[in-house]
Amino acid sequence: QVQLVESGGGLVQAGGSLSLSCAASGISISSRSMGWFRQAPGAEREFVVSINWSGGRPIYADSVKGRFTISRDNAKNTVYLQMNSLKPEDTAVYYCALNFFGRNEYDYWGQGTQVTVSS
């Protein structure tokens, strides 16, 4: 059974930092692309960042470029999202996702972790 479990969310003041983790079980992420998405209240889920299997060439949404950093540790089967200079508009539930089949979509999703940035 494939599971993605996010952790590290919480409440932080604007300008602060948080680090999210996404631990995978039931599958190796080592040869697969991973991504982070977020969904704010009343909004659609939006893309945040993706990373390919080797960790190279991350793709960031313009809204987080320069503030967020994605990384991965294939040995630990874990993907990370370091979020700096957080803004109130970053408040959302953050989800990690796994592209298992190599198509232009994500096949497995975590349950999400809440990030709240106060002004």
Identify the overall geometry.
globular
Would you tell me the overall average pLDDT?
Answer: 95
Distance between the termini: 40 Å
Number of helices: 0
Radius of gyration: 13 Å
How much of the residues is beta strand, in percent? over 45%
Order of helices and strands: EEEEEEEEEEE
**Counted beta strands:** 11
Helical content band? under 10%
Helix/strand class: mainly beta
Q: Extract low-pLDDT stretches.
A: none
Largest β sheet strand count, sense and barrel closure: 7 strands, mixed
Q: Main attributes?
A:
mainly beta; four-stranded antiparallel beta sheet
Write a structural description.
The chain contains no helices and eleven strands. A hairpin with a 7-residue loop joins strand 5 and strand 6.
Task: Give a brief description.
The chain is an all-beta fold and 119 residues long.
List the helices and strands and how they pair.
Layout: E1 3-7, E2 10-13, E3 18-25, E4 33-39, E5 46-51, E6 59-60, E7 68-73, E8 78-83, E9 92-99, E10 108-109, E11 113-118
